[in-house]
Amino acid sequence: MWNRNKKEEDIQYRPSSPAPSASEQSREAIPVSAYPTRQTEYGSARVTASIGKSLVINGHIQGKEDLVIDGRLDGNVDLPENRLTVGATGHVQGGIRAREIVVVGTVQGNMEASERVEIKKGARVIGDLKAQRPVIEDEAYFKGNVETIRIDTPKPAPKPQQPAPPIVDAQAAPETKPEIKRG
């Protein structure tokens, strides 16, 4: 007791920390970058909503959040201001309307994006595509029509033309003589 080293005492009497639970271990195993986030207009990041690969949904989805679909959806998706990602295990059978659409899995239905549609390598799409910037990578399967849309920028209003000065006919104008002052 008197001759013991200070480190030995700390080790002997220090209570051991409890082992982390299985849920904490699995949560720690997933890198933070695996959770998609985006900056909101107020500067805080928020997590994107997702439909897991074991979920099957029949119905219409609409909202104001980004969405990742890794499961199966039979119905339409309406996210006009947001991004929709169909993951590698995702399958959508229905129409899609979003600001941006990224397909890695399968889509059977028409897609319309105000900005861009990106069909990645290995994806499978059957349906028409309408976007400002369509992108189809090599080794992606696409069957349908592509229509590129152009967002017209507002043109400035034409400036009103100033009326031209009246043309004076030299013969019709009264004759004027310059006044000379003598001093």
Automatic annotation (TrEMBL):
Q: Which residues form a coiled coil?
A: none
Where are the residues of the annotated region Disordered? Answer: 1-38, 151-183
Q: Where is the composition biased (Basic and acidic residues)?
A: 1-12
The biased composition feature labelled Low complexity covers: 14-24
Record's superkingdom?
Answer: Bacteria
Q: Give the Pro residues compositional bias ranges.
A: 155-166
- Family to which this protein belongs: Belongs to the bactofilin family.
What protein does this entry describe?
Polymer-forming cytoskeletal protein
Q: Which species expresses this protein natively?
A: Paludibaculum fermentans
